[in-house]
Structure formats: structure tokens, C-alpha cells
Sequence to fold (335 residues):
Amino acid sequence: MPAMHALPPPLGAVHAPEAAARLWAGLRGRPAFACVIGSTDTAEIPGISAAGATPEKRRYTAALDSEFLLFGRPLSLPEIPRNPLGPPSPVVITRAALEALGVTALIVDAGTRVPPRTPRLVLGGVPGRCITTGRALEVPEGLRERARAAGAYLASTAPWLILAECVPGGTTTAQSLLEGLGIPAGGRVSSSMPGGNHDLKRRVVDQALGAAGLGPGATGLEVAAAVGDPMQPVAAWIALEASLRVPVVLAGGTQMAAVAALALRFWREGEPGAPERLSLATTRWVAEDPAADLAGLLEHLPLEVPAVHCGLDFSGSALPGLRRYEEGLVKEGVG
Fold:
């Protein structure tokens, strides 16, 4: 009988626990870490996101998070992004973890309104329009090849890859992409706000899908171009290419579930990849979010993508901003 694997504390299973334990048991050495950033005008919808205190400040969120991730301080504005109710961006957690590992992040710009003042890999993507237009993305010629080249490069630098994202408004575009791919996502996606903001998301996604008029034969890229954001196809291509060489951990919540769904659609349409090397890692706040269902989303993917959560707990923190994570604010982001 084959040996059973168990996840080491503080990791907990979200989906496919035995497969998750096997994958994590096989991870060795120091990972590469890349954060794919992008902008979507969907974030300008009032009340749609708390990844930045106002719609205007959300234009800077990806830049500020990238700057803090690399330099430990923001450069484009005086402060890092904050939820309107006070908690700081989760980039503070990611930076602390990367410092502990001795890992330097690579910023991959998939198309931003405000580019970060950091070294970054620019792939030639453009910011996304609001998904309610039904034509959210322009996909420049050669973007697929450049994204896959980035995946090959990242896989050559380390024995495994952590792939993160930063896209304000991205849980709404995640829901629209998932539903465009045929995955029931209503009421299942997380949010940077408590309660999930599902009514507003539902209205926006319905308008987006109605405007897009996608037929049953739409390809994955056609769905992403209609109702997605710039990060999603770029991250999916990077993950698929890197998976040919190393394990790839998609670091995030429901936004990365959408990336996994798109990567699997690309793979089923004939794109090279090794989906058995893909997994997802998130936070306890996403995994236990009573207003979302990450495990339920993953169960609807066409192939098994194991998922784990890290049991971070800030209830005893001396910092009030971090304690507010325990109230359902922010939950995750930037890996």
C-alpha cells in the first residue's frame, strides 16, 4: 500500500488533500517568485474593490505593491495601498516571507495604468477595459510567446515557482472569466471586503457576459479577451510553460482559481503544459471565508488542482491593522 502523505503545519488542505500533500512533499530548495501585475478599468466601478481606498488610488495599487515588494517602501505615492477600513496591503506579509526565504521577486507587467518604479519584465500587454464592455482586452501579437518565454526563464532559475498576482478589481474579473469558461462562480469568489459584495459583482458580471455574447464554441483566449483582465492570460501562459520543467504554485485565492481554469482550457485546446504540476496556495482567510467557496470552485475545474492554505492568525497581533484581517478584510493578495 503506498505511503500516505500529510501536509506539514501550518498548511491545511483546501482541495485534493492527498495530491496536495504529495506535491508539497516534493518541493525542495528555494523557489523563484514572480508577481504578475495588471490594471482593469473594472476597478473604477464605485464599491467594486477595497484594494485601495478610492477608485483613483486603485490605479496605483499594483505599482505601490510592486515597489514595496522590492524596496520595502512605496515610490509612486507616499503610502502603500490600504483597505478603506484600515488594514494595510497584504504585500507587507509577502515581503516578510520572501525576506525570510532569501528570495527576490520578479515583477511581470501584463499591462498597467501606472507602471511601478521598479525593475520589471514588460511583456507588451495593455491595461484592460471595464468588463461591462464585453471587449475587455486587446491581446497584442506575440504576447503568448513572450509570456511563455518568461515562464521558461523563471523555470530555469529555481527548482519550483511561486506565481502571484496583483490586480485591483480582480475578483470580479475572476468571476466573469470563470463563468465565461462555464464554471459556476456566483457567490463563490472572495473579496477584499467582508461579505463578498456579491450583489454588485453579479450585476457587473451579468452585464459583461451579456455584452460579450460568447457562444458555446468560444476559445479560452476569446473568453479572457471579452471578460477578463490582463493578468489572467499572461499568468496562465507563464504557469503552463514553467510547468513543463518545474512545479508551479499559484499563490492567491479565487483570482488564481480563474488563472488555473484558463490554463487548463488553454491546455485542453492544445497548448503545451504539465497541469499535474500545478497547485494553488492561499490564506486561511480565503479558505474559511463564509461568503465564498474556493474549494467549490476548484471542484468544477476539468482537472484536479490541489490547493492548500497557510494558517496565518493575526488575532494576537500588536498591530491593529493586521488584527483586522481576522474580521474578513483584505484576506490575500500579492502572493
Summary: The longest strand covers residues 32-37.
